[in-house]
Amino acid sequence: MAALFSSQTNLSSSLVIHSYPVKLKKFSIRKSVNVAKKVSLFAVLVDNGKMKVPFKLKEGQSRKFHQLPSGLKMEVISQKGLDQKNNNELKNPPLVFIHGSYHAAWCWAEHWLPFFSENGFDCYALSLLAQGESDEPTGPAAGTLETHASDVASFIQKEITAPPVLLGHSFGGLIVQSYLSSVETNKEFSGTANSLPKLAGAILLCSVPPTGNGGLVWRYMRSKPIAAFKVTISLAAKGFATSLSLCKETFFSPELQDHLTRSYQKLMVESSRMPLFDLKKLNASLPVPRVPRSSFELLVLGASNDFIVDSEGLRETAMFYGVEPVCIEGIAHDMMLDCTWDKGAHVILSWLSNRFT
């Protein structure tokens, strides 16, 4: 989401950098939170790794690279779902996670991949081009809404065997919206055969609204000038990279321990080697086309303490798709990393269970 106020082949044949065996055990939210606070986020340097501060994979996770039609490779951190008890015929849909600006696949792998894997879902977190360990394209920006959505479609088409649920956070949510509009209008992307792969559903998390960031910016400038200044310094000027307090205020709750904030800050600094979008070109392409919700389930989820996407932005996105928004109390923009990360995870699990299991 950092760009909000700035201008800014087959898995089986891919290179596996790290792989850990799955450990079958009963999942405990409280235990996992305590363990997460004690486990170091860092590993030894990955051979030829693009991030100077690499992320240490958890048990059961693997890092592979999906080769795009362009020849560039996209990082994928995956974690298979544990077998569902006595329910082999009713398979949960795969979950595909799309990050926002200054993030990469690691942001999902810290808490949510283990959580949803323990609950029987195959999980795949992608690093968009020029983010995380993914390759860089030529040009001043990593891509456009269409090229990012095309990369996601390429991965789903080649590596996923059943219609997945696509989850997008912040600007990743806008990419998911672009994907949805293209699916519903039968638009074809380069590198994908015929129409785009269908989805079982989509979840928009603290997402940029379908009209872009313009409304958010103007509301902040009118009603919260100090907050607008802070967000601009934090994101456009990358102040979050050097100020721990500003990083915490932008992305996390005050209660998140400083050592965790510092660890995430270092990973964010290393995650983005070029902006996700050219914002001028992005805004010219918006809003995303409105689509009927005839063939997919949709959840629009926000956070009450979001410093970046306000409640009006959350409502705008929900109204655009004709659904009721869900706002989680006591959590910040990076709900998948925040100290109460399990709140959002449980809301999503309940939503998935009611619709797919």
Keywords:
357 residues; alpha/beta; Rossmann fold; 8-stranded mixed β-sheet; 12 helices; 8 strands; 36% helix; globular; disordered N terminus
Description:
The chain has helices spanning 29-38, 106-109, 112-118, 145-159, 171-184, 214-223, 225-236, 244-251, 258-271, 279-284, 311-321, 341-356; strands at 61-67, 73-79, 95-98, 123-126, 165-169, 201-205, 297-303, 326-328. With 357 residues, it is of the alpha/beta class. The protein has a single domain, classed as Rossmann fold, CATH 3.40.50.1820. Strands 1-2-4-3-5-6-7-8 form an 8-stranded mixed β-sheet, with helices on both faces. Helix 11 links the parallel strand 7 and strand 8 (326-328). Helix 4 crosses helix 5 (171-184) and helix 6 crosses helix 7. The longest helix is centred in the last third of the chain and has 16 residues, at 341-356. The protein is globular. The two termini are 32 Å apart. Mean pLDDT is 83; it is low at 1-47. It holds the Pfam family Abhydrolase_6. This is AB hydrolase-1 domain-containing protein.
Q: H/E element string? A: HEEEHHEHEHEHHHHHEHEH
Helix content: 25-40%
Strand order of the largest sheet: 1-2-4-3-5-6-7-8
Question: How many H/I helices?
Answer: 12
Counting helices, strands and paired strands, the structural category is alpha/beta
**Which blocks of ≥5 consecutive residues have pLDDT under 50?**
1-47
Distance between the termini: 32 Å
Number of domains: 1
Tally of extended strands?
A: 8
CATH architecture annotation name: 3-Layer(aba) Sandwich
- The shape, in one word, is globular
CATH domain class: Alpha Beta
Give the amount of beta strand, in percent: 5-15%
The CATH superfamily is identified as: Alpha/Beta hydrolase fold, catalytic domain
Largest sheet: 8 strands, mixed
Computed Rg:
19 Å
Mean pLDDT: 83
Q: What is the CATH third-level topology name?
A: Rossmann fold
